[in-house]
């Protein structure tokens, strides 16, 4: 091992330790603030969770899956045929996420998640007549409005609740089916990220990232949170955009990417920031040819909702007002602007923190290579760095906006889904050690805490 490699490993550990200290600081300072005045509105800062050590039916499966991925994940990712790897990545993520959810049991961990007073399933019957419900949607956003929507319905455009209305209409009503929908669709984000990384940075790096994309602590919140579903829709939009210059049917890929991006924007207002990652994808592909069809697809979704009577912009402005009618009015920005980053550390894990350290160290070289006069980026690692840092930048913009004070362990899943791809930059000899750290963190989080989402 060279001295440069040893120094790199030391810096990886320093970055992980610094991130751990950030979490400890957020926990200590947050606890002091919460006990002093209750302004954080969380029981276990910086997470929306409660201290509740427990075991559950998913415990043995989660431990076994973690061991299998740690031991067999890297060699399988290196040798499996590509398509099998993508499918296995999705299946592995589904198994890992489902096992973590089942630590809390079927009812608490899956079937009951989307049936609480804050959630979408409580208002399904108000969409029996779809037209009037959409036309009147914005009239029920504010807290002082008659029959105001629950927090999550009010906090999102109507495509979010309409997803569960649609499931109910085809006979898949109730919390169990809704939870399974979020689990199955949400974990498909792993496949989408793998496909995107391969298209932009090459297959070797995608293969190296695969085990880390599966064994990530954010799975605690993907199963089962609607935000995990949103993350998958956004991820597939970007995957299709990355494929638009490589597939046999580039026009179809570009149009489908636009349709999914439009849907993403009507699932969550804040996910318009996915456009920042899309810009990086277009820059890396060095083409704007897909843009007209992408724009057409996104516009089609917007036109459909507008004609149905819902105004996205009106909804967003009312949401901002509703946001400050609730806990956000007292949650201190001065704490959450960095406390949110501690949440991010917990959902991406120490391995991703170390890998992001490497990505940031490589950023100046990648930035110089990105100059128009430099031509296309030749180094696959530089291309991966650009993609990952674009996702990190989008997350930081969301943080600075102040519209995500707390609960970002689920709200930022669509951005966090891309960050573990940076783990392809970690040295091969340390992959199992870093995978172990990822698994241990996820298992501790789900066994020691009762998460609110």
* Poorly predicted parts: none
Q: Please give the share of residues in helix.
A: 55-70%
Largest sheet: 2 strands, antiparallel
> What share of the residues does DSSP label as strand, in percent?
under 5%
The helix/strand order is: HEHHHHHHHHHHHHHHHHHHHHE
Question: What's the count of strands?
Answer: 2
- Global shape: globular
DSSP helix count?
21
The N- and C-terminal alpha carbons lie at a distance of 44 Å
Question: Which structural traits does this protein have?
Answer:
mainly alpha; 21 helices; globular; 1% strand; 453 residues; 68% helix; two-stranded antiparallel ribbon; 2 strands
Verbal overview:
By secondary structure, this protein is mostly helical. The protein has helices at 3-37, 59-79, 82-102, 105-111, 130-135, 151-154, 159-169, 175-187, 189-201, 203-214, 219-222, 226-243, 250-267, 274-285, 291-307, 312-323, 333-369, 380-401, 408-411, 413-416, 431-448; strands spanning 49-51, 449-451. Strands 1-2 form a two-stranded antiparallel ribbon. The longest helix is centred in the C-terminal third of the chain and has 37 residues, at 333-369. The protein starts with a helix and ends with a strand.
């Amino acid at each position: 091992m060279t001295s440069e490699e040893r120094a790199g490993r030391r810096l990886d550990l320093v970055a992980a330790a610094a991130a751990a200290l950030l979490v400890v600081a957020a926990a200590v300072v947050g606890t002091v603030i919460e006990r002093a005045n209750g302004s954080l509105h969380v029981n276990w800062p910086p997470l929306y969770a409660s201290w509740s050590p427990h075991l559950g039916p998913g415990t043995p499966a989660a431990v076994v899956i973690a061991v299998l991925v740690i031991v067999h994940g890297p060699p399988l990712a290196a040798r499996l045929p590509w398509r099998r790897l993508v499918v296995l990545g999705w299946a592995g993520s589904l198994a890992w996420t489902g096992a973590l959810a089942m630590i809390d049991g079927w009812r608490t961990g899956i079937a009951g998640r989307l049936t609480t007073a804050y959630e979408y399933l409580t208002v399904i019957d108000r969409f029996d007549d779809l037209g009037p419900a959409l036309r009147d949607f914005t009239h029920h956003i504010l807290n002082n409005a008659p029959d105001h929507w629950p927090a999550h319905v009010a906090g999102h455009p109507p495509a979010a609740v309409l997803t569960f209305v649609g499931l109910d209409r085809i006979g898949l009503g109730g919390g169990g089916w809704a939870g399974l929908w979020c689990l199955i669709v949400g974990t498909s984000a792993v496949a989408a990220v793998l496909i995107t990384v391969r298209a932009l940075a090459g297959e070797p790096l995608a293969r190296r990232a695969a085990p880390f994309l599966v064994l990530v602590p954010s799975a605690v919140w993907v199963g089962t949170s609607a935000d995990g579903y949103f993350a998958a829709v956004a991820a597939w939009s970007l995957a299709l955009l990355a494929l638009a210059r490589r597939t046999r049917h580039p026009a179809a890929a570009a149009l489908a990417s636009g349709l999914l991006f439009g849907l993403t924007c009507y699932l969550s207002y804040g996910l318009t920031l996915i456009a920042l990652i899309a810009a990086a994808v277009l820059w890396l592909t060095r083409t704007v040819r897909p843009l007209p069809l992408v724009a057409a697809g996104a516009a089609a979704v917007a036109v459909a909702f507008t004609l149905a009577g819902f105004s996205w912009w009106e909804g967003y402005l009312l949401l901002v007002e509703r946001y400050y009618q609730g806990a956000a009015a007292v949650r201190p920005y001065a704490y959450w602007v960095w406390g949110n980053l501690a949440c991010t550390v917990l959902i991406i894990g120490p391995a991703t923190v170390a890998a992001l350290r490497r990505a940031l160290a490589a950023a100046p070289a990648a930035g110089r290579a990105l100059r128009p006069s430099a031509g296309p980026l030749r180094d696959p690692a530089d291309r991966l760095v650009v993609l990952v840092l674009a996702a990190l930048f989008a997350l930081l913009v969301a943080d600075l906006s102040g519209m995500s004070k707390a609960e970002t362990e689920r709200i930022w899943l669509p951005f966090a889904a891309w960050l573990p791809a940076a783990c392809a930059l970690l040295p091969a000899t340390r992959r199992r050690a870093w995978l172990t750290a990822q698994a241990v963190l996820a298992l501790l989080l789900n066994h020691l805490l009762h998460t609110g989402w």
